Amino acid sequence: GSKLREVFDKINNLLSGKPVQTEGQTVSVTQHPQGLEFVCYKLAEKFVKHGEGEVSFHRDSAFPIAVVLSGIWELHPRVGDIFLAHLHRKCPYSVPFYPARKEGTSMEEYQRMLGYEVHDSKVEEQDHFLKRMSGMIRLYAAIIQLRWPYGNKQGAHPHGLSYGWRWLAQMLNLEPLADVTAMLLLDFLEVCGNALMKQYGIQFWKTMFFIQKSYIPRIEAVTSSGQMGCLSRLKNFVQKCLQAEEIPLPKGILTPSFWRT
């Protein structure tokens, strides 16, 4: 907890125009006319990279990263706006949006639009692609439910649970994609299902019932036998939650005791 506060204070001080020590030198955004804009851009980009890198391999890391970003977003809304822009470009499913291939668009360009990394005409492997998308969605799902505990709680969360509710509703209005849709829904519900359940009650459970009865069969219809892994996990998760009438707290959530460390 104390380490996370140090990280937050350093970022906040930098964005507030105060001199900050880094790698043996003192820097300040006031040293250049575009200093603040540059730092906002690079910082937002860095948070997205944490999502597609660190969170994709260490799922629990979504929460400490998200709580810092949430607090920075509250004090410096520009960072949040640019973060969303980077996130939507890297992971269109965070909108949620499935880009359609337009006439005249090359296959390589279209794959980039879908979020794939393409280097020298080689497209990244599906497993790696799914892992990156998973990390970014989990980070996004953590952000919408977390607030920096030392901030001013008078105002609303800068990008709170209502955005998560909207994401879920829009997602369920899209025609599902094999592989991708089941994974995204499972990641999202695992991370912020508990918070959505507490906030939206009966409406949330109606949505879970809809996923089980109507949406999962639609995912099954577009899923081949070799792509069933994530879909099976989603089915089991939804079924267990409906039976228990409870969504478990996500693994790695920051408890009050964490902030005393």
From TrEMBL:
Main location: cytoplasm
A GO term for molecular function: phospholipid binding
Gene3D superfamilies: GLE1-like (1.25.40.510)
Gene Ontology biological process: poly(A)+ mRNA export from nucleus; protein transport
Recorded superkingdom: Eukaryota
Keywords: Coiled coil, Cytoplasm, mRNA transport, Nuclear pore complex, Nucleus, Protein transport, Translocation, Transport
Annotated localization: Cytoplasm; Nucleus, Nuclear pore complex
Gene Ontology cellular-component terms listed: cytoplasm; nuclear pore cytoplasmic filaments
One Pfam family here: GLE1
PANTHER family: GLE-1-RELATED, MRNA EXPORT FACTOR GLE1
Family affiliation: Belongs to the GLE1 family.
Function description: Required for the export of mRNAs containing poly(A) tails from the nucleus into the cytoplasm. May be involved in the terminal step of the mRNA transport through the nuclear pore complex (NPC).
Record-given protein name: mRNA export factor GLE1
Lineage: Eukaryota, Metazoa, Chordata, Craniata, Vertebrata
